[in-house]
């Protein structure tokens, strides 16, 4: 593993060092109050790490501290990586964004849409629009997640074994076939709903490339970018680096995850169905490398993954009619506000910071993970930020908007 360290004095890149310390003081209070087990934060400007700090424990029971090399389950921060992978194949001519998903996964032909009734007896009708690859990239596919608990279709996903992620007995193709067999929430392109769509993209990566998803990631993304810590599983030799996963109790304090033992063991076994939507484990070093590649328009240290115009295209708002998430999204999916934010091909995109009620730049793109991890890239300010912790769900505390406030107030 490459060392992770501060590379430039903050003042040299327009950051006030005393104001940067507000980040550490603020989030240290979360640890002191027992609301977070521990965290790591990295702020980079002009391609150089200007602020890097850790606080608290990667495992509360043993007293093991978070270090700069700690490994975290990044959950949905896997999605931008899968989106980059699919667009790499798009650049090679493997498909058009308007191609039907059924061109790659035949079970997605003849989809049906939920119209009413309970999960035990849902009423459906034929979909009036085919599900296309751009629908998957923008979460406008009509698919859903079992954990949404907003619709009887979510309940169908739970009954099918997807409550804790991928169904235990299915490979990735089997998962896709199971999702295709269940009704959509809406006709593709008509609304935004957080879903297993990026897992379906992971299967398309496999079919279009002829490689298992983990191998495509390793050979085409992780090795070129020097992301040696990132994968769907880790070696047992790195067990002491893995942060323990916690859940919020009724008071918002970090409590042991009820499935901690099973999740810990699962981290050492390659999954039967690798989740392009939420399955990766990574580190601050590695995700910083990924964000730097995006900031530089698809290239880092001579390794080009995407053309710069592709990155610019991915990080525009692709929602129908230029709508924001507040207008188009079904339900809430994090603690962050949806107004003023659109969605591109794998990323949330800020169109209007005033409407978003958060200090940032137009064109900033970002995403986060279920265990309260987050990142963003601000091309206007030449800025990237990575925040890693392990507390579920991400809606427990307003970490992401507060992190924005504290980072941007340090820019001078």
What would a concise description of this structure say?
With about 400 residues, this protein is of the alpha+beta class.
Question: Could you please describe the fold and organization of this structure?
Answer:
30% of the residues lie in helices and 17% in strands. The protein has 412 residues and is of the alpha+beta class. It has 2 domains: 10-84 and 212-408, Beta-lactamase; 99-209, Up-down Bundle (Methane Monooxygenase Hydroxylase, Chain G, domain 1), CATH 1.20.58. Strands 3-2-1-16-15-14-13-12 form an 8-stranded antiparallel beta sheet. Strand 15 and strand 16 (383-388) form a beta hairpin. Helix 1 runs antiparallel to helix 13 and helix 2 (79-91) packs parallel to helix 6 (197-209). The protein is globular. It holds the Pfam family Beta-lactamase.
Kindly list the characteristics that best describe this protein:
17 strands; 2 domains; 412 residues; Beta-lactam/transpept-like; Beta-lactamase; eight-stranded antiparallel β-sheet; alpha+beta; 17% strand; three-stranded mixed β-sheet; 13 helices; hydrolase activity; single chain; hydrolase; Diverse_Enzym_Activities; Methane Monooxygenase Hydroxylase, Chain G, domain 1; Serine hydrolase domain-containing protein
């Amino acid at each position: 593993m490459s060392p992770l360290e501060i590379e430039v004095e903050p003042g040299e890149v327009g950051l006030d060092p005393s104001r940067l310390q507000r980040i550490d003081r603020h989030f240290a209070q979360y640890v002191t109050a027992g609301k977070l087990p521990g965290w790591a934060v990295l702020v980079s400007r002009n391609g150089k790490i200007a602020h890097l700090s850790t606080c608290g424990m990667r495992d509360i029971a043993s007293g093991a501290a978070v270090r700069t090399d700690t490994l975290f389950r990044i959950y949905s921060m896997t999605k931008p990586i899968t989106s980059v992978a699919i667009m790499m194949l798009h650049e090679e001519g493997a498909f058009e964004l308007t191609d039907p998903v059924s061109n790659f996964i035949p079970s997605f032909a003849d989809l049906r849409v939920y119209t009413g009734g309970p999960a035990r007896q849902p009423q459906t009708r034929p979909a009036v629009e085919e599900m296309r690859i751009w629908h998957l990239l923008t979460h406008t596919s009509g698919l859903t997640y079992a954990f949404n608990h907003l619709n009887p279709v979510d309940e169908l996903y739970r009954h099918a074994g997807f409550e804790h992620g991928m169904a235990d007995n299915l490979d990735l193709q089997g998962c896709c076939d199971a999702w295709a067999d269940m009704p959509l929430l809406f006709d593709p392109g008509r609304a935004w709903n957080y879903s297993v769509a990026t897992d379906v993209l992971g299967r398309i990566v496999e079919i279009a490339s002829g490689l298992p998803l983990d191998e495509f990631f390793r050979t085409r993304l992780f090795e070129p970018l020097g992301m040696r810590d990132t994968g769907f599983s880790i070696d047992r030799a790195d067990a002491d680096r893995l942060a323990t996963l916690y859940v919020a109790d009724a008071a918002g304090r970090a409590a042991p995850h009820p499935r901690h033992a099973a999740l810990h063991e699962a981290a050492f076994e390659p999954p039967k169905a690798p989740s392009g939507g939420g399955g990766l484990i990574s580190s601050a070093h590695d995700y910083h490398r990924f964000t730097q590649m995006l900031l530089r328009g698809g290239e880092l240290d001579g390794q080009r993954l995407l053309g710069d115009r592709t990155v610019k295209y991915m990080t525009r708002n692709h929602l129908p009619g230029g709508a924001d998430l507040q207008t188009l999204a079904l339900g809430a999916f994090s603690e962050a506000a949806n107004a003023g934010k659109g969605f591109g091909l794998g990323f949330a995109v800020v169109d209007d910071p005033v409407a978003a009620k958060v200090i940032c730049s137009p064109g900033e793109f970002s995403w986060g993970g279920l265990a309260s991890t987050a990142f963003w890239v601000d091309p206007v300010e030449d800025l990237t930020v990575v925040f890693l912790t392990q507390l579920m769900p991400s809606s427990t505390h307003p970490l992401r908007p507060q992190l924005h406030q504290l980072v941007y107030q340090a820019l001078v």
